[in-house]
Amino acid sequence: MIQNPILPGFNPDPSIVRVGDDYYIATSTFEWYPGVQIHHSRDLVNWRLLGRPLTRASQLNMLGAPDSCGVWAPCLTHADGLFWLIYTDVKRYGRTSTGGATGSASLRDFHNYLVTSPSIDGPWSDPVYLNSSGFDPSLFHDTDGRKYLLNQLWDHRPGGNRFNGIVAQEYSVAERRLVGRRENIFPGTAHGLTEAPHLYRRDGYYYLLTAEGGTGWNHGVTMARSRNLHGPYELHPDVTILSARQRPDAALQRAGHADLVETPDGRTWMVYLCGRPLRNRGTCTLGRETAIQPMAWGDDGWLRTVDGDGMPALRPPSPGLPEHRFAPAPVREHFDGGALPVDFQWLRTPWPDELFSLAARPGHLRLFGRESLGSTFRQALVARRQQSHCFSAATVVDFAPEHYQQQAGLVCYYNAAKFHYLYITHDETIGRHLRVMSSLPNHVQTDTFTAPVPLPASGPVELRVEVDEERLLFGWRLAGDEDDAGDRPWQWLPQQFDASILSDEANAPGQPNFTGTFVGIACQDMSGSGLHADVDWFGYRGRAYCADPKGLPVP
């Protein structure tokens, strides 16, 4: 039995490829650096995060990119002894002053690139620029050796269809560029918002898989086919082959943006994005995740879910491949290595040495105070994904601020407009103290602060967060602070914070929301002196249940 989602937490837009007995899934990372997550499995049940291929400025530089821009919808394929990775680097997405269809933004910047590598572990090449005509690029390797780029076509003209179909154009390996004429091969259906193309060849047909209905509650997977790559394409008899749009009771919602892979015995499996809404709020704090389930080809040559209901499956059957488990990720990271642990990322910049160091104080992550929380340029925030609706996270921060513009602490972060931040700071009246700043996107008062909690002038402070679905609590204690019984009790802030605002759905009108919630540590110094904070360890433990935080072990 498979437990969906197989890639929990923010892992949208999956692209899957099999090479021998190994399966790889690439997912979007948006403004988080390095770019593109690649997971590995040998049994389609157990997965591990292998790495992120876009690691240097020549491949990806997202400084200044707005929230929910950056790396969209990678496509990972294998041919001619190489791995081929296509991705979009989005530079602009959001409302403009020009009216457009349904009030959407008209002018946007989508730049599509190709990198290759002989090994999934790299080294990955510098990128080849392809086009900027739309997003969700996909590379198709035809049986005659020719290659074609497909992507969604963006139409900015007033009154037009923003999602103006799927275009295809040949790619010349020798010339390292697109050649020939661009053709619109599929206009989409009445569901609209046609995107996420993937093309396959089977039994004399070209099968085109797309996503439609938008990446929210109406999302779904559409299929069409043609004897000719350039069309015309006939629609699947059911049009949509997978969706939860008519089933608000389904555990997996927002299902769409899919890709197909075959096991060695010829069975077809579909990976797709999905969302798991909170029971009490209906918001997806984990963002868009990746699920998988078996599919079946009918006698009519069309693909359907195995039971024919077209629904995303929470617990599909196992493919029966030899089990291949991976060592579990450590609950606590001590930052003893020379590289940041694989689960952690930072925002936008290809120059992380400006933000943090693992060598300045051995055994610690040193964060250099940079711009304010939410900056789109140089922000010292290092974080990992929230991967379950209930979790515990804790850290210890050594930070000696001298000014209220100096801050460091533990943050639950969705984007610049949505976060809860438990931080240490200083002012001339209270001295060093602790408080919470919350950015609330859909409230009348968009930023709130708790009352300050005085702290000693120096010394490390342990910080902790407990999240049970929509309920978020913060706690703290002084490092080494024991009571008469030798225990080290936590001091809990009296407020209960709303974790549901850290979601795609909680939003100010017109702002894009395509990522998911991260939890990590941050440091700011708006005074310009670059004061640093040292982090000795960071712990994270997911839970399948709600609990009294006072009885939970420290991760």
TrEMBL record:
Sequence ranges assigned to domain Beta-xylosidase C-terminal Concanavalin A-like in this UniProt record: 332-541
InterPro entries: ConA-like_dom_sf (IPR013320), GH43_C2 (IPR041542), Glyco_hydro_43 (IPR006710), Glyco_hydro_beta-prop_sf (IPR023296), Glycosyl_Hydrlase_43 (IPR051795)
Active site: 13 (proton acceptor), 195 (proton donor)
Residues the record marks as site: Important for catalytic activity, responsible for pKa modulation of the active site Glu and correct orientation of both the proton donor and substrate: 136
UniProt xrefs under Pfam families: GH43_C2, Glyco_hydro_43
Known EC number: 3.2.1.37
Entry annotated with the keyword Membrane: no
Alphabetical keyword list: Glycosidase, Hydrolase
An example Gene Ontology biological process: carbohydrate metabolic process
Enzyme class: hydrolase
A single GO molecular function term of this UniProt record: xylan 1,4-beta-xylosidase activity
Family: Belongs to the glycosyl hydrolase 43 family.
Protein name: Glycoside hydrolase family 43 protein
Protein's organism: Pseudoduganella umbonata
